Amino acid sequence: MSNNSHKSKIVVIGAGNVGATIAYTLMVRKQANDIVLVDLNEALARGTALDIAHGTGFYKQIRVRQGGYEECADANVIIITAGLARKPGQTRLDLAKANVSIAQDITRNIMKYAENPLIVVVSNPADILTAAVTRESGLPADRVIGSGTSLDTARFRYALSRMFESDISDIDAYVLGEHGDSQVAIWSDVSVGGLDLDDFSQQNNLSLDKNLLAEWTKDAGAEVIGLKGATFYGIAMSVSCIVESIMKDKHTVLPVAHVLDESFGEWAGVAISLPCRVGRDGIEKAYRLPMTEEEREAMNRSVNTLREFQKNALHD
To answer: pTM (2 decimals)?
Structure first.
């Protein structure tokens, strides 16, 4: 579909907290004129769609509705949010295996109707499920985009903006690697208002505990879950940003995940987040960010962690 077509359609699979908030955010930001919620619990999907649709008159006459997998046939973007939450005492690997099975089933249903779809994977563990959806669908890796460290990066920028008392839009910074414990804050690339981190800190007489800030960023999601039981607003804005770059063909560079190809050497075959240019056809290019030796080693550890996790979860 042409990027200037008057008709645009997004399918959100999963009408729980994350899927519902994503659908609402897409509506408020006017990112499609047809938003479809798909869920095994059809009443939940229908009720959520109606609740959002009742507010469309305040923004734009956007159609928000419940539907089935046949709606994927002509969707510009399909967003997978369905999955189980981690239960007390359940290991991360056990959760991954359960959600891999769910993601595989969802993917098979998508592919019954859709030819060469563009899929955004949000369900956790997002990197593992991105690899699972890529494999199950047979799609090119650049058409299966994991939300990856886009939210971790936003949290990192938020923490830096609070620390520096700066406008968050003036801060350039990335968290890359796994959307999880082995994520890597790329301190060597941080800049504030065009100044590199050391220059900015020196000119403002600031001292920075990098380890503390990196740990806060990594644990920020767990903090929210501990306080209110789930996270969904931050990830909805993150996914909306990814969708906007696709729908408007903006070519925005975002820290998202996809299965890396052979050009990445030892990192090939793993779904992991790097800065990627995202447009109408998915991931157009993945960039190798200059890193210190320490950061490179941390990225290698993150890749190896995910490779082993992926091997166990996908039965490689």
So the answer is: 0.93
